[in-house]
Design a protein that fits this description.
The complex is a heterodimer of chains A (414) and B (301).
Chain A: E1 2-7, H1 8-18, E2 23-26, H2 33-44, E3 51-54, H3 58-69, E4 76-79, H4 81-86, H5 88-93, E5 102-107, H6 121-124, E6 132-135, H7 139-154, E7 162-167, E8 175-180, H8 183-189, H9 215-247, E9 254-257, E10 264-267, H10 273-285, E11 290-295, E12 297-299, H11 303-310, E13 315-320, H12 330-339, E14 347-352, H13 362-378, E15 385-386, H14 390-403
Parallel strand pairs in A: 2-3, 4-5, 5-7, 6-7, 10-11, 10-13, 13-14, 14-15
Antiparallel strand pairs in A: 1-8, 6-12, 9-11
Chain B: E1 2-9, H1 14-27, E2 31-37, E3 46-54, E4 69-72, E5 94-98, H2 103-110, E6 115-119, H3 134-146, H4 151-162, H5 167-183, E7 237-241, H6 250-256, E8 262-264, E9 270-272, H7 282-286, E10 292-296, H8 297-300
Parallel strand pairs in B: 1-4, 4-5, 5-6
Antiparallel strand pairs in B: 1-3, 2-3, 7-10, 8-9
Helix pairs in contact in B: 1-3, 1-4, 3-5, 4-5
The chains are: A alpha/beta (414), B alpha/beta (301).
Chain lengths: 414, 301
């Protein structure tokens, strides 16, 4: 074991290296490219065994990944944002093949307008696909989660592909100290894939992923994927405990930070959740019983763990770094459905923020806690809020004045 | 916690400086975080990189709004609003500028409440537009200002971060980093870190109004808006026309200029639009009578 400074992208590459992956179909996209560049350099220089092949698109890349996984080899790939969306037809198709592999997504906000910085709208578009989803808050988690994701995906009762998500910039290009397990320790935790019947032999042909035009086989196969994903809840606990036993790092499905006795809890995923941790400590210093509840596992949805973490709390401030057009934040809706009708359910205050990499300041975390507590006090759920200041709108108005100079005038109805 | 921001131009080594400092702090037992910040990669454009270091795991993320130390590797950035070198600078912030001019000259120009220090650039560097070794020099200086990084850790960090450059280049970089480290010896430990901060006002949140679709799509209706983007700020070398020798064959330099920044004036002489010339020096190369000269921006300005 060594402890080194790694970017989130380098940690992802180390995860793939320690997982002894056989095959990496690849396609570059900012802010992910550093992952496949790192792997390519290792493979080219003979530092690690493995084969990386550049495909002509993410659609082909995900197809190649699943097809290779269906032969029983261990497969890794990575993408981001528009790339994930370009692959979306196959993202939804391949989980039903029941061939496990790991795909890293480096979150980057979606077009339009096109941008580079992160939010979680990209990975949440894959939410209902059948891919398992693990969300990371720091670079250590990126490496560890890839090893955990392989164990989970390849678990005999699961056999589904998994996405490990990290935020662009805030993790992808940020170096932090990361413990790199020794190869032998990693191998002891994650032995070579035992594919069982997931194999390809010329002497034993299989027609995979055939059509099922009747609704009864269709419903059956779809529901099997769903049941397998649910099975991953129990399997996750088993795998994460084994990881903890071997490496001393506990990565629960739902991380609870000072939330046991909290009056108000933040609920969020990803890199900015460490800022929420900071906010919790500051609020506690000021006498506010605050906490953080952070789902690492988003699919399968850890409903029971969220209930146990949040029932009995007075208020929860959900910070969604995503936007479901015409609805609002995705996590707030998911959480509400998990808590609805339960005794002791907290008031939910919904916030959307951090879109396109927008910072969420320390003052904003405190203000969110204040709003959530006030709502619990009155018993009235507050209107969903976009974290957006008057100064930000002024900046946009200035840009509009430039872009629309001439026949049109900036400004709108309020 | 120490919060340090390095400002430089793309290509001057601000990212590398942040990594060397961060590595050195890590070797001294600190928890660290470092990251660069730039848009689409552009040589010469203003960018920055930041380092956080603390004795406990770091939960803060993203751009440093209130720095303890700001380092300007290139002094032409210090007063450039677009570079935002002074963003979040307060009374207790140390601002280090690498410059051949003394602190007294910079104090009125910056007009900011901060502790201002100047690091002399490498000998002979003033004449070189790209300020070679400026980054590592500033990394060494910053390490000394924090007062918690020993010489040995600085050297080890530099070797680790520059591994792959080859022995000769590492040796040259080491000399410059140590020169920066030694130059700031009188100010060792000047950056205190975690100075008390005034509480910020609560956020001024607003409800975003629904606008007409006609303005609510990212469309640019006005023409020529890129003229409002002063890409001339990315230039470290300035092409200067020697009109004594210019043959007024303006189509040559004007056609080859990739930014259409050279036009013929009414008198038939080429004029360079310095607001948008990025300093690629293609015109210098193609000018038939060699009448365009490359002059370091610092001297030309």
């Amino acid at each position: 074991m060594s402890r080194e400074l790694l970017t989130g992208n380098a940690a992802a590459a180390w995860g793939a290296r320690l997982a002894d992956v056989d095959y990496v179909p690849a396609f570059p996209i900012t802010p992910q490219t550093e992952i496949i560049e790192t792997l390519a350099r290792w493979y080219e220089g003979g530092e690690a065994p493995g084969r990386l092949v550049m495909l002509e698109s993410e659609h082909s890349m995900v197809t190649a990944a699943a097809a290779a996984a269906a032969t029983g080899v261990r497969v890794f790939s990575a993408t981001s944002s528009q790339g994930l969306l370009y692959a979306m037809e196959m993202i939804y198709a391949v989980p039903g093949w029941r061939a496990p592999f790991v795909l890293v997504n480096v979150s980057r906000a979606l077009a339009t307008p096109i941008t580079l910085e992160p939010d979680h709208s990209d990975v949440l578009a894959a939410r209902d696909s059948g891919f398992l989803q693990i969300h990371c808050a720091n670079c250590q988690e990126v490496l560890d989660s890839i090893l955990i994701a392989y164990r989970l995906a390849e678990h005999a009762r699961v056999r589904l592909p998994a996405i490990v998500n990290l935020d662009g910039f805030y993790l992808s290009f940020t170096r932090e100290p990361v413990k790199i397990p020794a190869a032998a320790e990693a191998r002891a935790f994650l032995p070579p894939f035992a594919p069982g019947e997931v194999e390809f032999r010329a002497s034993k042909p299989v027609s995979r992923a055939v059509a099922a035009l009747g609704s009864s086989p269709y419903s059956y196969f779809r529901y099997q994927t769903h049941l397998a994903a649910l099975e991953a809840l129990g399997a996750y606990e088993e795998v994460a405990r084994d990881f903890e036993r071997r490496f001393g790092r506990w990565h629960p499905a739902v991380e609870c930070y000072r939330s046991e006795d909290a009056e108000v809890a933040f609920l969020m995923i990803g890199a900015f959740s460490t800022k929420a941790r900071d906010a919790v400590d500051r609020l506690r210093e000021k006498g506010v019983a605050a906490g953080l509840v952070r789902p690492r596992l988003l699919r399968p949805f850890p409903q029971a763990a969220l209930r146990s973490a949040l029932l009995g709390r007075r208020a929860v401030a959900v910070v969604d770094q995503n936007l479901s057009m015409g609805s609002g934040g995705v996590l707030a809706g998911e959480l509400a459905s998990a808590l609805y009708g339960c005794r002791g359910a907290p008031m939910i205050a919904r916030f959307v923020g951090g879109l396109g990499g927008r910072d969420i300041t320390a003052e904003e975390f405190e203000a969110m806690a204040t709003e959530a507590r006030a709502a619990a006090e009155t018993g009235e759920a507050p209107a969903p809020r976009l974290l957006y200041t008057a100064a930000e709108l002024r900046e946009v108005r200035k840009l509009q004045a430039i872009a629309l100079a001439g026949p049109r005038e900036a400004g709108g109805r309020s | 916690m120490f919060r340090v921001r390095f400002h430089g131009r793309g290509g001057q080594g601000a990212k590398t400086a942040s990594q060397i400092l961060s590595s050195a702090l890590f070797l001294e037992g600190f928890e660290v975080q470092d990251a660069p910040r730039y848009g689409a990669e552009r040589r010469g454009a203003a960018m920055f990189a930041y380092v956080r270091a603390a004795r406990a795991p770091i939960q803060e993320r993203g751009v440093i709004a209130r720095p303890d130390l700001v380092v300007a590797i290139d002094d032409t950035l210090a007063t450039m609003p677009a570079a935002a070198v002074l963003q979040g600078v307060a009374q207790d912030t140390v601002v280090l500028i690498q410059s051949a001019e003394p602190a007294e000259a910079w104090r009125p120009r910056l007009n900011a409440p901060c502790e201002l220090l100047v690091l002399a650039p490498p000998p002979g560097a003033a004449a070189q537009a790209e300020a070679p070794f400026g980054g590592v020099r500033c990394a060494g200086a910053a390490a000394r200002l924090l007062g918690v990084v020993g010489r040995a850790s600085l050297e080890r960090a530099l070797e680790a971060e520059l591994a792959g450059l080859g022995e000769r280049l590492i040796e040259q970089n080491r000399a410059h980093a140590l020169a920066g480290f030694d130059a700031l010896a009188p100010h060792a430990g000047r950056v205190r870190g975690d100075a008390p901060r005034a509480a910020e006002a609560p956020p001024d949140w607003i409800a975003v109004p629904l606008d007409d679709a006609a303005i609510a799509a990212p469309d640019i209706h006005a023409t020529g808006t890129s003229a409002a983007s002063p890409t001339g700020l990315w230039r470290v070398l300035r092409p200067v026309i020697d009109y004594e020798h210019c043959k007024r064959c303006v189509w040559v330099c004007g056609t080859y200029c990739p930014d259409s920044a050279i036009r013929a004036g009414e008198d038939g002489r080429p004029n360079i639009d310095y607001d948008h010339c990025k300093g690629c020096m293609v015109c210098v190369t193609v000018c038939p009578p060699h009448a365009i000269h490359a002059v370091p921006e610092r001297e030309a300005a």
